[in-house]
Design a protein that fits this description.
Strand content: 25-35%
Largest sheet: 7 strands, mixed
Distance between the termini: 24 Å
CATH class of the largest domain: Alpha Beta
Number of domains: 2
Number of helices: 11
CATH architecture of the largest domain: Alpha-Beta Complex
Radius of gyration: 20 Å
Shape: globular
Amino acid sequence: MFPFTIMGQVSMKAMVHKTGTEGQWLVQEEVDIAEPGEHEVLVRVGACGVCRTDLHIVEEDLPPLSDAIVPGHEIIGTVERAGKAVSRFAAGDTAGIMWLHAACGRCDYCISGRENLCPQKVFTGYSVNGGYAEYALGREEYMLPVPAGLAPEKAAPLMCSGIIGYRALKLALPGPAGRLGIFGFGGSAHLTVQLAAGMGMDVCVVSRSEEHLKLASQLGASETIQSGVTGLAGLTEKFDSAIVFAPSGNVVKQALESIRPGGKVAVPAVHLDRLPEMDYNGHLFNEKKLFSVEANTRADAKEFLEMALRLGLRSEVEVLPFDRANTALEKLKHSAVNGAVVLRIT
């Protein structure tokens, strides 16, 4: 694809993944601005959320697909130019680009509305360049129109952290008055707790961080447990369902111990460390269900954004300038973010 010129500008600033060394993962470089294809939209990026998946990419927990990729898939920006076949977006529109960049549209999964399982799916900021840059390309049918009144920094975490939390909640749904356990508290969990509480669920958050638990209570959790201090000794009542946001096999085991017979544990993690040995009777018997959650469908994204706006979900964000992307990833790695961290790009 040939470089695209915007007011005489052929290249853009971008943070490019170069090394797996902590704090030096990304290097700022000049990268060509790509011409949007027939079904593509070129967006001037206003803000890009920093997701744990980005950390897995730069640390190479996920196998690199390119020698130099621009991460970032929680993108909010303004449409600069749309391809000739695009009908849903026009220059000046506010748009969001998500983790699921595109799928084949022809396989059994795509035809049945499960494009998140398509064997040929493509991911923003992993398969193709993402939003740690001044401009990013999206595929029209996998993008979201975003109300112009939403601040880009507040809207960015909705594009992945919120959507994946919504899909996990939908699949693990304990019922309107059910009891939900949330294990780990970060970008996804701080939105999911609001969503679950807004739907009438009794929500308990389990985390090692006292600061995270304070925020969880402010956002609607009816109970919190500091796991590093008491484990689950303070649990007053078992859960109907649980969602494990912490990328830890030991926490998955803990969640299975915390649910009632017939309960469900959802794991919306793109990467998880080793699962420990488990006891069938103690962890899986009594019709307990353990399942992973992968990416999202377009229907999930649309449903979630509508619900987020209706319920008034609020993103608690720490905003850092574009050139401090390595710092943002370090803070995320060391659990030094309370809520979500977002890069201000333009």
